[in-house]
Amino acid sequence: MNKILIVGEHDGKSLNPATAKCVACAAKIADSEITIAVLGTDTAAVAAQAAALAGVKTVLRVDRTENAHPLAATFAPQVAALAAEYTHIFGPSTSFGKDLMPRVAALLGVAQVSDLMAVESAYKFRRPTYAGNAIVTVEADASRKLVATVRVASFEAAAGGGAAAVESKSLSVTLPAHTRYIGAKSGSTDRPDLQTASKVISGGRALGSADNFKLLFSLADKMGAAVGASRAAVDAGYAANEMQVGQTGKIISPEIYIAIGISGAIQHLTGIKDARTIVAINKDGEAPIFEVADVGLVGDLFQIVPELERLIGS
Amino acid sequence: MQKIMVCIKRVVDYNVRIRVKPDGSGVMLDGVKMSVNPFDEIALEEALRIKERLGNLEVVAVSIGVGDTQQQLRTALAMGADRAILIQTDAAVEPLNAAQVFLALAKKENPDLILLGKQAIDDDANQTGQMLAALWDRPQATYASKVELSEGKAQVTREVDAGLETIEVDLPAVITVDLRLNEPRYVKLPDIMKAKKKPLEVTSLDALGVSHGVFLKTVKTEPPAQRQKGIMVKDVAELVGILKQKGLI
């Protein structure tokens, strides 16, 4: 029996969709029992959401005042304590999971499999290396606990309709005081979250300015899409850091991805190759983005984007 | 603040096109250009800027790897590190093992701050800094885009999925750096000459009292699945027609 513990990601109100992807990944391991742990100050609401995910047997609530913010230094000793009863400990490959899980693994004295993209068996997985240019199959020692982060773009979210038991856990773990949360600044927007949106429009350096990105925002609002950017556009200051799509930014898997004025550097393609449909609009017909696009259109984006917005509405 | 330790990895240069060996045993590394992991270069640059601001502080660059890793440490010395240590081994070193080695070095060197890249561009593991912080029982601040030091503390702005987050950590601490923390300096010829005279100690895992561990076995290496090239449309109307037909808009 594989007992899998998933560390749930949430903001206190909603469970991050990345958690449902982790459940889907865990469910691919045969003969497994899935538990989700949610750490926070009052996790009643997010625990209920976690309990509704199909395939989950138990949800563990760990409520304490120190858990107001997901600091790895605070969360890791608690997750490590919970891990005692499990064979596998999974977290999402988001900035939350990537920060936390290696700290958990080291506390347990075990290795971590990062960015797990496919399950071959309970201890054998596939993961990307070299910015997605080489996919390795790795095998871990079945006699030890296995810690992994799940590449969320590789899995469909687990369905709802589950009814897991919810338990409160109190852990007698001493937490360090050496790390303190100061604050956060989010590029708050009414648009869908880039990481989980089903429609994404991204702009590249060809946009030419931050001001011209408004063209994309306008189109995105018409379509109900999130807006991303290439690394070149972010480096040039046209778009905010958190909008970056690619190996060093966000790795996404929307239903439709529209790349506008993006040439298609390998590190960008790594971030979008799980998109269902890729549309490329670029004035250079030789741009590498067309090699991976399902639908391509060569032309001037400054004419195409407004026309696209007009025709979509008609 | 007296000492900053910067961990550096020798990796395939980021401009090299990666090819998987036909027998699936790994990627082709023969005759391929090797460089300092770009994220580690940013970590070193940050250490040097802190040194320039505060003065009177030593920057020690450390690495684990084959004998030729001395080249990358010489680059670090040419950029401005004061001395370097190479833990020489021909074996591949996994993140947990690397963290154990850096822990042994941290205990020996007692740095106030350890800086390293958020990930290496070869294995893309994104683990070593966090594991080192855990083993050292010290704070971690990952994905740093801004580092401000004050007496015994560091305030670090982190790049997270939702935007930016700021945390404060007591020193000593481990900070892993993201792409936009700074732009590393170019190395000038006189600096390369000067770097040849700087101390570079070569030692071994045994001397450090760390055993080599294999935690994950790599069974196979394959090229990624390729997407098929799709169709080209002539105008926006045709594009919209296809997207509507597919139910995407």
Key terms:
heterodimer; A: 314 residues; alpha/beta; Rossmann fold; seven-stranded parallel β-sheet; 9 helices; 16 strands; globular; B: 249 residues; nine-stranded mixed β-sheet; 7 helices; 13 strands; 29% helix
Structure summary:
The complex is a heterodimer of chains A (314) and B (249). Chain A is built from 9 helices and 16 strands. With 314 residues, chain A is α/β, with parallel strands linked by helices.
Cα separation of the termini of chain B: 57 Å
Largest sheet geometry of chain B: 9 strands, mixed
Helix content of chain A: 25-40%
CATH topology-level name of the largest domain in chain A = Rossmann fold
Q: Roughly how much helix do the residues of chain B carry, as a percent range?
A: 25-40%
- Biggest sheet strand line-up of chain B: 9-8-7-10-6-1-4-5-11
CATH architecture of the largest domain in chain A: 3-Layer(aba) Sandwich
For CATH, the homologous superfamily of the largest domain in chain A is named as HUPs
Q: Give the amount of beta strand of chain A, in percent.
A: 25-35%
Domain tally of chain B: 1
In CATH, the homologous superfamily of chain B goes by the name: HUPs
Q: Any overview of this molecule?
A:
The complex is a heterodimer of chains A (314) and B (249). Chain A has 9 helices and 16 strands. Chain A has helices at residues 17-27, 44-51, 72-82, 95-108, 213-223, 231-235, 266-272, 289-292, 301-313, and strands at 2-7, 32-40, 56-63, 88-92, 112-116, 118-121, 124-129, 134-140, 146-150, 165-168, 179-186, 199-203, 226-229, 256-260, 277-282, 295-298. In chain A, the strands form 3 sheets. Chain A has a 7-stranded parallel sheet with strand order 5-9-4-1-2-3-10, sandwiched between helices. A 5-stranded parallel sheet of chain A has the order 13-12-14-15-16. In chain A, helix 5 packs parallel to helix 9 (301-313). In chain B, helix 2 crosses helix 5 and helix 3 crosses helix 4. In chain B, 29% of the residues lie in helices and 31% in strands. With 249 residues, chain B is α/β, with parallel strands linked by helices. In chain B, the strands form 2 sheets. Chain B has a 9-stranded mixed sheet with strand order 9-8-7-10-6-1-4-5-11, with helices on both faces. Chain B has a single domain (3-219), classed as Rossmann fold (3-Layer(aba) Sandwich). The chains are: A alpha/beta (314), B alpha/beta (249). The interface between A and B is large, with 82 and 78 residues.
